[in-house]
Amino acid sequence: MVPYGGFWWRVLAYLIDFVILYIATIFVMMIFGLGMGSSFMAFQQNPGAVVGYVMLNSLVSLVLNWLYFAVLESSPWQGTVGKLAVGLVVTDVNGNRISFLRATGRYFAKILSGIILCIGYIMVGFTERKQGLHDIIASTLVYKTRDPREAQHVDEGVFA
Asked: How many domains does the chain have?
């Protein structure tokens, strides 16, 4: 039986993804001419620009994060670069690849997992199938395997 992806494996995967997304966000902001140097000069001339910069940075970060997680977790890889690096795949409850819509729901449910004092994430360490709140909401599982085919139909019949 393929084991579920536990809490610490998921934390390690997220740290890898965080570094990738941080660099990508900086790169995108520089493309739009909103690097730290130009922003600092704009702030000196117009202190109110700080609010606009923070809002734009937050929006760019949200969109990049959403697309990164949703596209990669619904792709044939079934995981982000971080998940693939540590050997994790995201599936539906039958071990099949998830749709972009389900991956999108899972991503936004992660926000809920975080805003309730990260209890939604901590649940991974205490639930039978290592599911966080976002996994339960999106009906997904995370397996500790590098081959998504190994996870297919592992839990077949559990929900029948």
From this structure: 1
